[in-house]
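>> received
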Amino acid sequence: MITSRQHPLIKQLIKLEESAHYRKKTQLTVLDGLHLIQAYHAAKGLPEHLIVSASYLERNDPPKNWHALFGATLPTITVVSDSLMRAVSPVKTPTGILAIIVNPVAENNRDHGSEHHIVLLEAIQDPGNLGSILRSAAAANVDSVYLSQDCCDAWSPKTLRAAMGAHFSLDIFENSNLLQVSKHFPGKVIATALNATENLFEISLSGPTAWVFGNEGNGLTSEIMQQSDSVIKIPMPGETESLNVAACAAICLFEKVRQNTLSRPTKLS
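>> returned
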């Protein structure tokens, strides 16, 4: 059992949680909680390392549960004291189980012609917003999400928690040139802006669609809006000035889902 913060594994955990630069350098990150670990395993395979607290070990039947989850082959498993788990956990109330994983990072060289529904994010700064957008994108069956160079880290523990496993069912491209992605996308590119004249609920969303969402405070740059085929707004009859970018993204993505569902031919019994 590890009890010292000076242990190399503990030092690595802390650096992975705190440093985006270290995560990018090592291509590793930390998952907190069994749900995220299960989602990763179902989509990508074994984690590199499991770290569990002593009390987690006592509360569960690890050999039986872990073999049921992972099969015959288990990842490396290390037990740490409860006090050390509290010290290294990325949340105030530790779940008792962490995993170190290899980031399933996509390469920015794909053929955009095979994509039908994508999201482009420009300078999103809040990890919670980014995680929520990724979760909505996965639920709406989006193919890929492209992040500009000045977006926050897609693989931070906070973003991963907010996305609840969505990372592992999406192709996520960081440090993307959004102008180039939109230029080569074969369908409509739709940007969102408060001062737009077109109404989301009055446009057709049939065919391949790329959505562009911008920074929480400043919105989209003029360059990406000029590159877009349409600039739309979400009608807001209430007195609120604007919507959170994650809420905006969810509404837009599921308006396309709604329109696509209505356009499907009805099967005759």
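>> The two ends are 63 Å apart (CA to CA).
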